[in-house]
Specification:
Elements (H helix, E strand, L loop, with lengths): L10 E7 L6 H11 L20 H6 L6 E7 L2 E7 L7 H9 L3 E7 L6 H12 L4 E6 L8 H12 L3 E3 L1 E6 L2 E7 L4 E5 L5 E4 L6 H16 L3 H8 L6 H14 L3 E5 L8 H11 L9 E2 L5 E2 L8 E10 L2 E10 L2 E2 L2 E5 L5 E4 L2 E5 L2 E5 L1 E2 L4 E5 L9 E3 L16 E7 L5 H14 L4 E5 L4 E6 L2 H15 L3 E4 L6 E4 L3 E9 L6 E11 L5 E5 L11 H11 L13 E9 L7 H15 L5 E15 L3 H10 L3 E7 L5 E9 L6 H9 L4 E11 L2 H20 L1
Parallel strand pairs: 1-3, 1-4, 4-5, 5-11, 6-11, 31-32
Antiparallel strand pairs: 2-3, 7-8, 8-9, 9-10, 12-13, 14-15, 14-23, 15-22, 16-21, 17-18, 17-23, 19-20, 24-26, 24-27, 25-26, 28-33, 29-30, 30-32, 33-35, 33-36, 34-35
Helix pairs in contact: 6-7, 6-8, 10-11, 12-13
Length: 692
């Protein structure tokens, strides 16, 4: 069993990431089994793996959230951080990378570099985390190590260097060569290694791949560079030290390989992690929220960073990394985000869902605690005062749907459940749109929203449906008209009388611009505010489709009153009549919301994106290069109504590589055909509401 705690220099925090289906969770399972953390090798298909323990993950057979599982190997505590491989759950990947010392990108031996591999590299680069690779599924037929290495070096550069090489005969791997020691091993069904003699026919290929490795290692120091050019052999200690420096400096992105299902190659993979991967101190300085460096001190003031929250109906689990000093049980910490205090009555290390209590955790280690009252993801807590650590920047959700409760009166229950899920998942957004009177749920994709609905049902007992959200259209007028409104009612006693003549025209201000040019007191001044209020109330529902009216100028120029029967209410109603009588004659139009779209894609996809924007009635403003090599930013304006499925469409167009942002910009006149559809739809909805 793993030592539950470890000193800082003996800790390795590794994050597994890559395309869905490449075997990240299976690799974690193989590592735990080989390290005797598990007495059996769990399988995703059987729903018994350590890291995929959530009922949703077991049901769907893939990872949905970041999980942590520690093991002990060669005296080192290795904290495995397993992350999802699907784009809808990229927020979880970014959480894991925030506390990782190295990112291990898992690649399929047959497919080589895929979309998920490219995105994983970008995520790790953005997080400034060193990178390594593990080529998985080497036991399968047609596994092509050479092709995989070539595609990796082509995509990610010469930093990619193999450390282990397979021996392949008749399309099957029968052994693995450690390019550092030049020793070959074969593995039995339990992952146990036996040293074998390397057939001479492989020497040329071994020397070729070893030369790649030695050249990368030589880049780490002048001394090794001189030895490399002098064709002198590096010592074993020099190579491990150089690999460590190379990983940290980004000069080396070592490639290891094996099979998570047969356990072949897992032991040397763990050996390299323990011997050469960086410990928390070697990561250098931490950063504060303004990107200024913060020194790491093993014996300094204890401080932690909350990188993940797990919510359920009974409370929440806070996952953290000890960023500075040593954290002991029963320590009172100050939350630097909200100036509250939290007592850490219990400290745990977590392996999947299993929590084991400990007395203390060293600087750089990962732990969890429960029942914190005022602490959430991205919070910094410290014994004293400290700067807040750089927060995790989560991707912004743009796919949204309207939430409809299946049971009446469940709105509060839904809001409570989603509020708890928001603590857990910062890529969800939830809002109550007062104008359309709909509850809107935002996510990173269809699958993401589907998982949120399942969690709502299973954890909080409420079921909902998702429907296409309504668009908040507007109405306005294009020409000036004069209109008259007279409200007259006699029913015994005091009657009601109000009479106005109003000139309507398009206004410059967004709302109502009200003026009066009354002569001779035909409408007394004390009734003018009532006329204005009547118009403002009328503007809440336009004459075409019932949408709010904007940019309206109204001038009260005449009218009449009755000494006894006139009242504020009478003039409000008269103004309403004038509005209803006048606006249909003033060339009313529908205005639709238009937003600013920015799409980030490579040259390969710009043509498809341009064409799709055009189909969506969008207008391309231009294209500019970005800081990322080969990535362009296409700027466009496009109606909001055309953007409901853009997240899905862009992924399909760009194989998941494209990204975008969309922000509301203004309202524009809707084309006649579109306006007519909007009006017809509004009438149908109004009739349906009446029948209901």
């Amino acid at each position: 069993m793993a030592s539950l705690t470890a000193s800082t220099e003996n800790i390795r925090n590794i994050c597994l990431l890559g395309h869905g289906g490449n075997g990240k969770t299976s690799l974690a399972e193989a590592m735990l089994y080989l390290a005797k953390e598990q007495d059996r090798l769990g399988k995703i298909i059987e729903g018994n793996t350590v890291c995929d323990y959530d009922p949703e993950e077991i049901k769907r057979k893939f990872t949905l959230s970041t999980a942590v599982a520690p093991l002990n190997w060669n005296g080192k505590k290795i904290n495995i951080i397993d992350t999802p491989g699907y784009l809808d759950f990229s927020g979880e990947v970014i959480e894991g990378l925030r506390v990782a010392g190295c990112a291990i990108i898992v690649i399929d031996a047959k497919s080589g570099v895929d979309v998920g591999s490219e995105l994983a590299w970008d995520y790790a680069t953005d997080a400034q985390v060193p990178k390594a690779f593990f080529i998985n599924k080497m036991d399968e037929e047609n596994a092509n190590f050479t092709s995989a290495i070539e595609s990796m070096r082509e995509k990610f550069g010469v930093a990619v260097c193999p450390v282990i090489m397979p021996l392949i005969e008749d399309r099957k791997v029968f052994g693995f060569v450690d390019l550092i020691t030049k020793k070959a091993r074969e593995y039995d069904a339990s992952g146990n290694a036996t040293e074998i003699v390397i057939p001479e026919k492989f020497n040329e290929k071994i020397n070729s791949f070893r030369s790649m490795l030695m050249e990368s290692l030589a880049e780490t120091s002048d001394v090794l560079m001189e030895k490399f050019f002098a064709e002198e052999e590096f010592t074993l200690e020099e190579m491990h030290e150089a690999l460590n420096h190379g990983i940290m400096q980004g000069i080396c992105a070592p490639v290891l390989l094996g099979s998570a299902t047969t356990l072949a190659g897992i032991a040397p993979f763990l050996d390299i992690i323990a011997a050469s991967f960086p410990n928390p101190l070697q990561q250098g300085k931490e950063r504060d929220e303004e990107n200024n460096p913060i020194e790491i001190e093993i014996g300094g003031t204890p401080s932690i960073f909350i990188f993940k929250t797990i919510a359920d109906p009974f409370g929440k689990i806070s996952m953290f990394k000890v960023m500075n000093g040593k954290l002991k049980r029963d320590t009172l910490l100050n939350n630097m985000t909200n100036n509250t205090q939290e007592k850490f009555s219990h400290l745990y290390v977590i392996k999947g869902k299993k929590q084991t209590e400990v007395d203390e955790l060293a600087c750089g280690d990962i732990g969890v605690t429960t029942k914190l009252v005022s602490t959430n993801t991205n919070d910094t807590l410290s014994v004293g005062k400290t700067k807040k650590y750089a927060p995790i920047k989560f991707p912004k959700p743009f796919l949204y749907m309207a939430v409809v409760p299946r049971a009446k009166g469940d709105e509060d229950k839904i809001s409570t459940g989603i509020a708890r899920l928001l603590e857990e998942d910062r890529t969800i957004k939830y809002e109550n749109n007062g104008e359309t009177k709909q509850l809107l749920l935002y996510g990173l994709g269809e699958q993401h929203l589907d998982v949120v609905l399942s969690k709502l049902k299973n954890r909080f007992g409420t079921s909902v449906d998702l429907v296409v959200p309504k668009i908040a259209y507007r109405e306005t007028i294009k020409k000036a008209v004069d209109a008259e409104g007279k409200h007259k009612k006699q029913s015994g006693g005091h009657g009601q009388y109000g009479h106005v003549k109003i000139h309507f025209e398009p206004g410059e201000a967004a709302g109502l611009t009200f003026t009066e040019t009354i002569f001779g007191g035909s409408v007394p001044k004390n009734f003018h505010p009532a006329v204005e209020k009547g118009l403002q109330e009328s503007m809440q529902k336009g004459v075409l489709a019932g949408f709010p009216v904007v940019h309206l100028k109204a001038n009260l120029f005449d009218g009449s009153y009755h000494d006894v029967d006139s009242s504020e209410m009478s003039f409000k109603l008269a103004a309403h009549i004038a509005f209803k009588e006048g606006l249909p004659k003033a060339s009313p139009i529908i205005l639709e919301p238009v937003g600013s779209l920015k799409v980030y894609v490579s040259d390969d996809y710009t043509g498809d994106v341009y064409g799709d924007i055009s189909k969506r009635r969008g207008h391309v403003l231009g294209m500019n290069p970005t800081e990322k090599k080969g990535i362009n930013c296409i700027e466009a304006e496009i109606p909001s109504s055309e953007m409901s499925n853009y997240t899905i469409a862009l992924r399909a167009m760009t194989q998941g590589r494209g990204q975008f942002t969309f922000e509301f910009s203004r309202y524009d006149e809707a084309p006649t055909i579109i306006a007519q559809k909007i009006i017809e739809e509004a009438k149908k909805n109004a009739e349906a509401e009446k029948e209901a």
